[in-house]
Amino acid sequence: MHFTKMHGLGNDYLYYYGELEHPEELSIRLSDRHFGIGSDGIITISPSSIADFKMRIFNADGSEAKMCGNGIRCLGKYVYEKGYTEKENLKIETLSGIRSLRLITLGTKVKGVMVDMGKSDVREPVTLSLGEDKITCTPVSMGNPHAVIFVKDAENAPLTSIGAKLEKHVFFPEGVNVEFVEQIERNVLRMRVWERGSGITMACGTGACAAVAAAVAAGICPLEEEVSVLLDGGKLQILVHTDRTVIMTGTADTVCECEV
Asked: Label partner for 153 (CA 20 to 30 A): which of 94, 104, 142, 163?
């Protein structure tokens, strides 16, 4: 089997064109960074009857995700640069619905991707008990679940303790991605993430969208203006429209080709 390893700001996946038998087992084995290729999971690409392409996402623990913002940018680069399409505006079928991409190209290469991530659903903040700790977070849906926690120091956020516990809290029956967010400037956020099914990752596209949507709802970031989200792997630009639609712009990179 041939895989292409790609990453969006360090959030890396193995891409396969076609359907895989037992993708859950393969994702566990191949994602292992010591005994496999190493990745945050596997993304498969196949034709779609309702869009240009269909995307399925399998996390490093074998669970299937509904959406991945960094992953979908890489998918756009993959299908364009490998000749599966000549279109620069694409519709992608995901478990969260159809997402629209606009490829930013230079010659035959994709230098960036703008993604219509759909509408955010920001709920009222909740305070949850985690053993002896109490954590206040803002639940946000970007087609997949997020818990946004505003902190004063994102660099030293308790990802492996609070993040890991909150991921499996009973309040989130399907699990949750946990974002620790610090406001640096009016239009700049610093974010670190504990990703559902993968643990600490260098970036999370849907998480960045959720963070800005929660910040806009809280009145600390503006509507209709781009907000820079600084992640461990780099920067994303996020724009929240008045109708709650979120636009994400960022890079996508190819690491290597793999034969398994």
From this structure: 142
Looking at residue 101, its amino acid is L
Q: Which 3-state string (H, E, C) describes 246-259? A: EEEEECCEEEEEEE
Which is the catalytic residue, given 68, 74, 137, 258?
Answer: 68
Closest CA to 60 of 2, 9, 11, 95: 11
Q: In whole angstroms, what is the distance from residue 219 CA to residue 62 CA?
A: 37
Q: Reply yes or no on whether 258 is catalytic.
A: no
Beta strand extents in the chain (DSSP E only) = 2-8, 11-17, 41-47, 53-59, 64-65, 89-94, 97-106, 109-119, 121-122, 126-130, 133-141, 145-150, 177-185, 188-195, 199-201, 227-231, 234-240, 245-250, 253-259
Residue 191 and residue 231 in contact, taking contact as beta carbons nearer than 8 Å: yes
What is this structure's pTM?
0.91
Q: How confident is the model at residue 36, as a pLDDT?
A: 96
How far does CA 175 lie from the centroid of its chain? 15
Q: Which residues on adjacent β-strands are paired with residue 90?
A: 101
Mean pLDDT over residues 170-183, rounded? Answer: 96
Say whether pLDDT at 240 is over 90.
yes
Q: Which of 74, 204, 209, 258 is catalytic?
A: 204
Widest pairwise Cα distance in the chain: 56
Sign (positive or negative) of CA dihedral 235, 240, 244, 249: negative
